[in-house]
Amino acid sequence: MVPIHGRERAFFTSRLLFIAVLIGLMSTVLLGRILHLQVQAHERYLLQSDRNTLAVLPLAPVRGRILDRHGRVLADNRQEYILTLIPEAVDDIARTVSALRAVLPISEEDYQAFLRNRRGTHPYQAVVLRRNLSATELARFALVKGGFPGVRIETRWQRVYPYGPLFAHLLGYVGRPDARDLARDSTLVRSGLDQVGKSGLEAEYETLLRGVPGVQEVEVNARGNSVGSFEERPAQAGEDLHTTLDLDLQRTAAAAMAGHSGAVVAVEPRTGAVLAAVSAPSFDPNDFVRGLDGTEWQRLRDDPLHPLNNRFATGNYPPGSTIKPFVALVALRNGAIRPEETLAGGSYFQIPGTTHRYYDWRPGGHGRQDLRAAIRDSNDVFFYQLALRLGPTPLAQGLQDMGFGQSTAIDLPSEGRGLVPSPAWMNTRNGRERWHTGQTVMMGIGQGYMLATPLQLARATAAIAADGRLPDLRLRADRPVATRAIGVAPRQLQLVDEAMRAVVRRGTAHILADDPHDIAGKTGTAQVRRAERDVNGRVRGGSDSRHLRDHALFIAYAPASDPRIAVAVIVEHGGHGGSAAAPVAKAVIDQYLDGNSVAQP
């Protein structure tokens, strides 16, 4: 029989042995797990940790401003409140957006833009879901933000155009990058930029204005919130763009065109600096920055007055009689006429051997005149004959030398080229149609296939004012001046200058005769439809329907003795250049030379 104290010792020893074995087993398992974490799975867990908590996020730069020639701000930036979503911090984006729509209006366009901009971005980069939140919307979201992890309010810079429609076709506007923008510039994906230049100077100088995005390394938690910051490379703000534009002159030009459709362009003759350029009617680029809904876009697109069209840059118009000074210069340069030579007049002209009549705008005609008088009175019959003497190919080449049918070199993303027709052009255009003599005749008065943009007309007018030097047009103030000779002798330019002064003093623009600024100019009327005439050459029917009226044109420079400004004006369906377009040019010239015109804000 074992003593009681011996049995107790044996029981205690067996219990101690069991506990020791159990502790040994647990230690072995724990050590094995530690070994697995530190050695075998170290790289996998380290990579997962970096991916989930360390984010390299872009910092968007502040966009450069656009200024007029006196430093006045035409395009600026202001802070706005935006709603953003961090994709990695949201379990179900579609469901989250659906729930958010019960709190804030989020359009399908907003959502599609979010999905587009999300592609290629860092998972922890906040992507814009809604822009320009109001104070009411901010308060509404603040009440429920706890239920939307990964969704937050931020402030960002928004483009703003203080003068609204006034500079719309010059400045253009910015907008969300679309698929085409991303295809052209792959760096946009990770730049943090959610607005880029879409048109006008905003698009032309996108790289200059954009600046350089920065980067920031941040530690984020599972809810997408930053819990620490590491290295940062600040963004570099975009450069300001100083332009040649004059705010006061732009206001005057726009006010003079109020109620009309058309365009005005004013330039410095010797430098090509664009002082003002108006396309009427216009639109508000601020609407494009905030984003148009489908109804608003359709209203703008389908507006019968076409406010989105840039008439001064891409509008192609028959130049009408404003082409006559340039036809005269080509004829003088080519020796097709002598300065004092006269040509027969009359109420119409017939090509020898044909019966078709090409009428003068004046039913009774002008009689026999020399070149000066023919320009002064806008003698169609004279220029029919002059074009025929020149021939289509020399005439076309001469007009091209003066900038027609060519780029003006203006620093905008797109411009029209107009059209200088010729037999060679006709052959490439249509194999069935051949050039005929009547088309040559019509070129002499700027009709037929002949087309020009207001920019081209202003530039060519500047060449006459600048002693035969054709300037490249420019909007950026520090862009180098570039000109080229049009190959016309000084005495030939003097003849045309004298004739254009006479147009204002006692010719078709005599309405401006009392202006103190010694304006030289030329009126023009561009037919919208073929005129029906009676046996006496008078146009049948009235012009009660505005859309059937002729376009009114006027080109001018002043002071004629030392030109500082050249202007081109077109008033669509304005009727006559002298009565409709010339007063617009007068207002612009007066404002620029002495500030007599009062511009409305």
From TrEMBL:
Gene3D superfamilies: DD-peptidase/beta-lactamase superfamily, Penicillin-binding protein 2a (Domain 2). The keyword Cell wall biogenesis/degradation applies. GO terms for molecular function: penicillin binding; peptidoglycan L,D-transpeptidase activity; serine-type D-Ala-D-Ala carboxypeptidase activity. The active site is at S321 (acyl-ester intermediate). It is found in: Cell inner membrane; Cell membrane; Membrane. Keywords: Carboxypeptidase, Cell inner membrane, Cell membrane, Cell shape, Cell wall biogenesis/degradation, Hydrolase, Membrane, Peptidoglycan synthesis, Protease, Transmembrane, Transmembrane helix. Its EC number is 3.4.16.4. GO terms for biological process: cell wall organization; peptidoglycan biosynthetic process; proteolysis; regulation of cell shape. Residues 60-227 form the Penicillin-binding protein dimerisation domain. Pathway: Cell wall biogenesis; peptidoglycan biosynthesis. GO terms for cellular component: plasma membrane. Residues 262-589 form the Penicillin-binding protein transpeptidase domain. This is Peptidoglycan D,D-transpeptidase MrdA. Belongs to the transpeptidase family. MrdA subfamily. The keyword Cell wall biogenesis/degradation applies. It is an enzyme of class 3 (hydrolase). InterPro entries: Beta-lactam/transpept (IPR050515), Beta-lactam/transpept-like (IPR012338), PBP_dimer (IPR005311), PBP_dimer_sf (IPR036138), PCN-bd_Tpept (IPR001460), Penicillin-binding_protein_2 (IPR017790). It is a single-pass membrane protein. It catalyses: Preferential cleavage: (Ac)2-L-Lys-D-Ala-|-D-Ala. Also transpeptidation of peptidyl-alanyl moieties that are N-acyl substituents of D-alanine. Catalyzes cross-linking of the peptidoglycan cell wall. The chain crosses the membrane at residues 12-35.
